[in-house]
Amino acid sequence: MTDDRDVLRDVWFGRIPTCFVLSQDEITEREAEPYYLLLPRVSYLMLVTDKAKKHFQKVMRQEDVGEMWFEYEGVPLKWHYPIGLLFDLHASNTALPWNIIVHFKNFPETELLHCLTKDAVEAHFMSCIKEADALKHKGQVINEMQKKDHKHLWMGLQNDKFDQFWAINRKLMEYPTEEGGFRYVPFRIYQPLSDRPFIQKLFRPISSEGQPHNLGDLLKEMFPVALTSEDAEKQYQVVIHGIEPMLETPLQWLSEHLSYPDNFLHISILSVPRD
Fold this sequence. Notes:
Layout: H1 4-12, E1 15-22, E2 35-40, H2 45-48, H3 50-57, E3 69-72, E4 75-76, H4 83-91, E5 98-103, H5 118-137, H6 140-144, H7 147-158, H8 162-172, E6 187-190, H9 215-222, E7 236-239, H10 251-257, E8 265-271
Parallel strand pairs: 1-5, 6-8
Antiparallel strand pairs: 1-2, 3-4, 3-5, 7-8
Helix pairs in contact: 7-8
C-alpha cells in the first residue's frame, strides 16, 4: 500500500523531458545546438533554466540578449504558472520531449509578466502560499510562522529539496480532526487558450451535511460541461499533475496530496484528442 509520503514524493519528483531550441528570429554568431533538460513539474521555468540560458547566450552577441522568454507552438509560456501545469495545458497529448522555443527579443508585453530576477518568482510563490492559507486557515498558519520558515519553503522549492520543503509545508496541510478538512479548498481550474485565466471560487471540502465533497462535486458546480453523462461520448479530460484522478476522489485528499508547492490544486480541463 502506498503511504501518503510516497504520494507526495512521487508528485515532487515528476519530471518532463524537454528540448529547448533557440528561436530562428535570434541572430547568432554560430549555430545554436538544442539544449535538453529534465524539468521538475512542481517548479517554475525561471528557476530551472539558467543552464539553457547560458548555453544559448554563448552563441549570441551580448547586445542582442534581452529578457528571456519561452514559447510552445506559438503560445508564450507564463513563467508564474508551475511547469507541470504549463505542460498539461499546452502539451499533454504530444510526444516527448517537450519542444520549447527560447527567445531573447520581442518580449510579448501584453501576454507575459516581466521576470528579471528570481525575486519575482519568490514574491509570486509566497503570495500564492498566503492566499491558499487564507482559504484553508484564515491565514493563521502562515502568519504564525517565522520569516525563516517562509525562507525554508522557498529555498526547498528553489533547490529541489523535498524534505526541506515538506518539513514546513506539512504545517500548512494540517487541520483540526473534528472539522474533517480545510475551511475552503484552494483550487484553480484552467482551459487552454481560454480568455479567462482560470476559475477560482469558494468551495468547502465537506458538505453542509458533513459528507466529504469529491472532485466530481467540485466540477458539477464550477465546470459542469467537463462531466460526461453515461450515454454520451467523453468530451473532456480532467488532469492534475499529468493524471486523470477518479471523480470520486475526496477533494480534501486531493488538496493535501496533489496540490503544487504553492498549495493550490491546479486542474486542467482538456478536450479529448480525436484521431
